[in-house]
Amino acid sequence: MKSEDSAPDRPGPAAPPVLKEMFNHVSARYDLLNRLLSLGRDVFWRRALARRLVARDYPGSFLDLATGSGDQLLASREFWPHAELTGLDFSETMLDIAGKKLKKRGLEGEADLILGDVREPPFESELFDSVSISFGLRNIAERDSLYREAFRVLKPGGRFLVLELFFDPRSLVAPLHRLHLEIVTPWLARRLFKSQKKAYAYLSRSIMAFPHPAVIADELKAAGFKGVEYRTYTFGSAMLVWGQKPLPE
Question: pTM for this structure?
């Protein structure tokens, strides 16, 4: 996989400013956190994203932004056994965990793990068939900058996919979802992750504040993506939004 010479080592603009430090500290329990926030459904959602990846050219080249501990890369490998996989993240410790996880599953060397800024991915233009970001967009304050870069590195006809958690106040289970995010998750975090309980409280709040998938779909359209669609999962607690980079006219 071709990349430029330098890989910026800084997080995108987000709240709190110490986001990178926070993820470095919580990395050891990040997978457990995902199970907690999603009630174990994040594995299913990642597979739903992997099914919608597209390969313009065999065997496919996929970039996962804010790849964290590598779970989306593993889900993609299930459905695309020969694709070239690349994960980009600003957390050194997260990428270390991703590497160990790949090795444990006999997939060492099956993905390029690159330290860098998702707002400035260090790759040539029109390099990837699909670009994804799972549970990372809500930590980016300037989403339009990420959309522009995803558009740039995609091949014409390539697909950009966003998997994210959100809160839908119109959902039939909204009261239970709110209870889970505002009461249950912080309560468990205080007991399971005492040293980083503020970090987990932040992550719950970021879900509550994230826009409806229709808003994200409109943002993708404004960024130039075509054929934008979205689906929600598990009573409106997760979204998958996707769109294509247009082919030349």
Answer: 0.88
